[in-house]
Amino acid sequence: AWNSHLTDWSLQQSLEKQSSSVSILEMNRNKFDVSHAWSDVHMTFCFRLKLYDETLAGNAAEFHGFDKDKELIDLNNFESSFLPCKIQEANREKETFDVVYYYDVDHEVMSKKIGRKLKIYSSKYLIMKDLPAESVQFSEKKSPISFRHEILIPDDMFPESWKDLS
Fold it and tell me: Which of 60, 74, 120, 154 is the most exposed place for a label (fewest CB within 10 A)?
């Protein structure tokens, strides 16, 4: 089965299915030539610091274009430099994207009435217009509840040339 897979596999078929790391790599090389909708195997991430800086600068607006998106919220919990986002529009000429993301932040404010800090929790969908393309990445979709473990593959499945690390 493995040998027939190696014989029959083609890059074009892989890109059409958008189901491998090779296709995701290609999507990142040609961000404006691919489908921007999330699939079963890929999703989009935006650079967290850029989004937060622009959000705090007032360059984002509330977005009410879809109902609660559980997937976007659940995947927001990863500690990472990137935040899950969904592309709404692409501008090839300006090399930018309009993206929606789930803004989830704790605020500490001083209450004048009681004289102590209070935590205010705010969460909402925001849209950022004209986010530079370099702030957007396609990635393999990982489930926040997935179980990952080592798999053992026999060495004899791989050609000797692949095992030569020199």
Answer: 154
Secondary element (H or E) of residue 53: helix 48-56
- Say how far apart CA 4 and CA 86 lie, in whole Å: 37
Residues sharing a CB contact under 8 Å with residue 145, sequence separation 6 or more, in sequence order: none
Rounded Cα gap, residues 166 and 162, in angstroms: 10
| Secondary structure (3-state) at 121 | strand
β-bridge pairing 82-91 and 60-62: unpaired
SS3 131: strand
Q: How far apart are CA 54 and CA 34, in angstroms?
A: 26
The partner residues of 132 in beta bridges, in order of sequence, read 96
β-strands 136-140, 42-47 pairing = antiparallel
Q: How many other CB atoms sit within 10 Å of the CB of residue 9? A: 11
Task: Report pLDDT digits (tens) over 104-143.
Answer: 765 444 445 555 554 544 678 889 999 999 999 998 876 5
